[in-house]
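Renewal narrative, Specific Aim 1. Our central claim is that a sequence can be written position by position from structural information alone. The example that follows is taken directly from our test logs and has not been curated for this report. It begins with the structure tokens describing the chain, in the order in which they were read.
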């Protein structure tokens, strides 16, 4: 494969590599940097590409490995080592404690969302949440199993809309 053919294929693949870079970095500027690093490595290591193999897979592997290397470098850079006699890591989380304040707020929001939920949806949902099977809920409430499934689905949907602020917190 000539250098011109290789350049053409690599530049053509750069369009499909950008979304992958965005998925890895979750930032447009970092994705552009990763793409640029990947293309640079591909051009400088052109001689290592085995002609006849999948160039797209080769490029994606370069990008993934570059991302991992950069990430590991960033983690090492952000880890400070205390050189005192105790030799503790400054940013170690081994000795940190969690006061559960955030979960208290979340639980309160969930409780408030459940309070305003219609009783016909709340009861089957809570029973399901407590571990009852669909057919057991249907027997206790004396309603068809399809109605139980529908009410649980609608309760989840309503709770999800009321608790949308926590969608990306997990």
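The sequence written for that structure reads:
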């Amino acid at each position: 494969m000539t250098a011109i053919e290789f350049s053409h294929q690599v530049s053509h693949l750069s369009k499909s590599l950008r979304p992958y870079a965005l998925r890895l970095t979750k930032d447009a500027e970092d994705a552009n940097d990763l793409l640029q690093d990947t293309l640079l490595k591909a051009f400088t290591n052109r001689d290592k590409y085995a002609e006849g193999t999948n160039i797209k897979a080769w490029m994606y592997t370069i990008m993934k490995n570059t991302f991992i290397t950069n990430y590991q470098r960033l983690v090492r850079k952000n880890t400070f080592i205390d050189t005192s006699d105790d030799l503790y890591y400054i940013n170690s989380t081994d000795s940190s404690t969690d006061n559960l304040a955030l979960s208290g707020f979340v639980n309160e929001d969930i409780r408030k969302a459940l309070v305003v939920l219609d009783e016909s949806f709340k009861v089957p949902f809570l029973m399901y949440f407590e571990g009852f099977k669909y057919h057991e809920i249907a027997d206790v409430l004396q309603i068809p199993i399809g109605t139980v499934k529908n009410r649980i689905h609608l309760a989840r949907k309503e709770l999800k809309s009321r608790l949308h602020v926590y969608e990306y917190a997990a």
